[in-house]
């Protein structure tokens, strides 16, 4: 049984939403975790239950709890925040699936490079006027021009986890 979500406009509640990233480094011995502290978004649910929208991350807001590393991640070696301050995910289609799942497809843009991205999200909460989605997806940073890998220290894919709470916009 799928969860019904009201039609109309929805706004991301940034205070109750998180987008985090983790990646193995030091030849797979250390996992670096970071959280984007500035995230915005909105969407629209159509009468057929499908949705579309946009999620925007301030690339400079990535916090890994290590100032020197964060400065390097903001540099041209990685996110190049001076030239590309935003990371966006444009949801082209979010279609209710079985149970509490939502099949999401869209365009992820990092460093001005856009690539198609699809994943399955889960509705983890749905009350009058609010809905919370949880998702985990993997991203190949090299596809977005982030090939820096001194001495082969960074291997594999980055994992992005998101918990996104939306509130229904009032007219």
From TrEMBL:
It comes from the Bacteria. Transmembrane segments: none annotated. Residues 9-167 form the Lipid/polyisoprenoid-binding YceI-like domain. SMART domains: YceI. Belongs to the UPF0312 family. This is YceI family protein. It comes from Streptomyces montanus.
